[in-house]
Design goal:
It contains 10 helices and 36 strands. By secondary structure, the protein is an alpha/beta fold. Strands 1-10-9-4-3-2 form a 6-stranded antiparallel sheet, with no helix packed on it. It has a 5-stranded parallel sheet with strand order 13-12-11-17-29. A 5-stranded parallel sheet has the order 19-26-20-21-22, with helices on one face. Strand 7 (78-80) and strand 8 form a beta hairpin. It is globular, with a radius of gyration of 24 Å. It starts with 16 loop residues before the first strand and ends with a helix. Bound molecules: flavin-adenine dinucleotide and FE2/S2 (inorganic) cluster (FES).
């Protein structure tokens, strides 16, 4: 993943190209030596950056140029054309940035510019008044992105990151996709190598449970009684899977999927399992079903709804997702729930039974708000945060799956469970802990992958009164618009990446102006 391949027929920018070959606003992919390079013209300015997204290798030339940035077609990361910096998650690392030389009517790209890595040593923190101690509770998407951003901003103070997990922050979305399917390399999973934390002065404490917060004394109390003082605190405790409460729910072959440890436990079971039952037709449940099919395990999906994903994506997409899984051999038992599990058998509400030597439970998640609640923070089906992601307690911020914030695009206070939103909120919270007052205005985005079919979704539509479809859902070439009072609130798409990016820009514009 993420490796730039030079295309032998692509232009060699070191040899130069004519200015006339690149019209205003256009992108051209070429190469310099072995490296793929993207050349972009904006008026009389020319920019050259690496052509391959640093997240999962998306082809930036197939993305969208927005002012002096380019957005990735796959998961909507955004890079500066001027510096190569990753401006919007999910990409966290920059792409290479090249010097562009102009001689008469030709453009040449020959030399790379130096990249600046996040480091405490590389300069002073820009904020006038920096807090001395920042504590982050959570070693997931939001917590990691916040810590990384603090160091990228050259924050010099102490960063303590407390995580209940055994592993340093991981690429959680992959745990229900390629990694579970056995198709991902181990080194795709950590967001950064273990050495990153000590090299960047991030005091990452794993397997550490935060038991309570004393907001008045400005300290968190760990499970073993240790106190950790803070000047600014970020709560990024994420969500936890809803637990099954039927007989047999605690049997060893009944597993949930949230952490790397959970995923490894499922992989271990799947080595000998022949039949799996997935409880829940949620995104995670169905992605897990696809991954288990890739391991050639017989998969049954049991869920109470009539159609998978209908509540979020509508009936057409729901029918498509079901048909896609059936094409790959998954058998659905919809309109049913499990009432009991034995060693090798799951009993259904309709009276039937299914053989299973592995049961994966994906029946939803709940925000982990116990800490916030015990600290007396204002709650509303999540932790209430203002536009700058500060909670009702000054100095305490919230980001990710727990945060309910005023979304300027829908006009509602919303809480979502999306990887990219959690990362971007972590980054915004980091800036605001340093004294900035940046509003969180990013348009929500998520993706889901089933076999070779990616579904991208921008915006937020809990309810809609009109759904229009361009293209053909069953043919895997479509763009669905979810509207309320004629306004587009959200767009879902399959293989319409540029249109999805354009929809994102269209939704974000009114809020930024
Ligand atoms: C298998 C899987 C696949 C997914 N796939 C996608 C996808 O394809 N696309 C998408 O948009 N989203 C996806 N998601 C959702 C996405 O991963 C979440 O929205 C995101 O991780 C939320 O980030 P977060 O930082 O809020 O929480 P998390 O990433 O869950 O991190 C929370 C952290 O807080 C820690 N914590 C909680 N309480 C305490 C405590 N008291 N003390 C110490 N530590 C504590 C936890 O141990 C954890 O480290 C997926 C989720 C899962 C589980
Ligand atoms: S590959 Fe570019 S954002 Fe994921």
């Amino acid at each position: 993943m993420g490796t730039a391949q030079s295309n032998p027929v692509s232009p060699d920018f070191a040899q130069g190209i004519s200015i006339d070959d690149l019209s205003d606003g256009r992108m051209l992919e070429g190469h310099v030596g072995e490296e793929s390079v993207l050349l972009v013209r904006r008026g009389n300015d020319f920019f050259a950056i690496g052509a391959t997204c640093s997240h999962y290798g998306g082809p930036l030339a197939e993305g969208l140029v927005v002012e002096d940035t380019v957005r990735c077609p796959w998961h909507h990361a955004c890079f500066s054309l001027r510096t190569g910096e990753a401006l919007h998650a999910p990409a966290l690392s920059p792409v290479a940035c090249w010097r562009v030389e102009r001689h008469d009517d030709s453009i040449f790209v020959r030399h790379k510019k130096e990249l600046s890595e996040p480091s405490r040593a590389s300069g002073a923190a820009p904020a006038a008044v920096s807090p001395a101690r920042i504590v982050i509770v959570g070693g997931g998407a939001a917590g990691f992105a916040a810590a990384e951003k603090l160091r990228r901003e050259r924050y010099q103070g102490s960063v303590v990151m407390l995580s209940g997990e055994e592993a340093p922050p991981v690429d959680r979305p992959n745990l229900s996709k390629d990694y579970l399917a056995g198709k991902a390399l181990e080194d795709w999973i950590p967001l950064r190598p273990d050495s990153f934390y000590s090299e960047n002065g991030i005091d990452l404490r794993l397997d550490t449970n935060v038991a309570s917060i004393n907001a008045r004394a400005r300290e968190v109390v760990l499970g073993d009684g240790t106190r950790v003082a803070y000047d600014r605190l970020l709560l990024a405790t994420g969500a936890e899977p809803v637990r099954l409460s039927i007989p047999g729910a605690n049997l060893p072959h009944v597993r949930m999927l949230r952490s790397l440890a959970d995923c490894r436990a499922i992989i271990e079971r799947s080595r000998t399992a022949r039949r799996a039952v997935v409880l829940g037709a949620s995104f995670i449940g169905l992605e897990a079903a696809a991954a288990l099919r890739a391991r050639d395990i017989d998969v049954r999906v049991v869920a109470p709804e009539k159609r998978p994903m209908e509540r979020v994506l509508g009936s057409q997409m729901g029918d498509f997702v079901r048909a896609l899984h059936e094409e790959h051999g998954v058998v659905f038992h919809l309109g049913e729930t499990a009432t009991g599990i034995e060693d090798k058998r799951v009993t259904l509400s309709g009276g039937g039974t299914l053989d299973a030597d592995l049961v994966v439970v994906g029946i939803g998640v709940r925000p982990r708000i116990a800490l916030a609640e015990s600290a007396g923070l204002a709650l509303d089906r999540g932790v209430i945060a203002d536009a700058c992601l500060e909670t009702s307690a000054p100095g305490i911020f919230a980001a990710g799956d727990i945060a309910r914030w005023p979304d300027p695009h829908s006009g509602d206070n919303i809480r979502v469970e999306h990887w990219v939103v959690a990362q971007r909120q972590g980054q915004t919270a980091a800036l605001n802990m340093l004294g900035r007052r940046e509003k969180f205005i990013a348009v929500p985005f998520f993706w889901s992958q089933h076999y070779d079919v990616p579904i991208n979704y921008v915006g937020h539509a809990e309810k809609w009164d009109e759904l229009t479809i361009d293209g053909d859902v069953m043919a895997r070439d479509c763009l669905l618009r979810y509207k309320r009072n004629r306004r587009v609130l959200a767009v879902a798409s399959i293989y319409r990446d540029v249109e999805s990016l354009k929809a994102e820009v269209a939704i974000e514009r009114p809020a930024t102006t």
